[in-house]
Amino acid sequence: MGFTLRATPAYCSIEAGGEASYALSLDPSDPPLVVTLAVDNPSPNLTSALSASTLDPIGVVTLTLTHHGPEMPQWYSIPVSADGGGFASSVEVLLLVSGHQILLPSVGAAANVER
After folding, report:
1. How far apart are alpha carbons 3 and 46 in whole angstroms?
2. Extents of the domains making up the chain
3. Residues 6+ apart with CB under 8 A from 106
């Protein structure tokens, strides 16, 4: 019996100098083990902090990322791993700093407008 490490949300967008939070959990939420978490910090412009170093099957641990770098658009991919009971799983959370998202209308949306 193994597990999968999950992160919610999968990505966040912040301004330079900001902070983002992700909820880490296990799937399924009933393995009979506690896992140890580790974060691989990819940049000196980020500080990562876990609310706990271990995660129990029905718990949630918060990963907080704080940006300390320049005000330039940058994507970061932050690997998080979990090990326990002879099993391992990992997930990558994404962080967009000082970027802009453009939302486009879906095709066919105009057909739903009443005239």
Report:
1. 28
2. 4-101
3. none
Whether the predicted model's global pTM rises above the 0.70 cut: yes
Contact 41, 77 (CB under 8 A): no
| Superfamily of domain covering 4-101 | Immunoglobulins (2.60.40.10)
| Distance between CA atoms of residues 76 and 73, nearest Å | 10
Contacts of 39 (CB under 8 A, 6+ apart): 48, 50, 63, 78, 79, 80
Tens digit of each residue's pLDDT (9 = 90 or more) over 25-70: 998 866 668 899 999 988 999 999 999 999 988 899 999 999 998 8
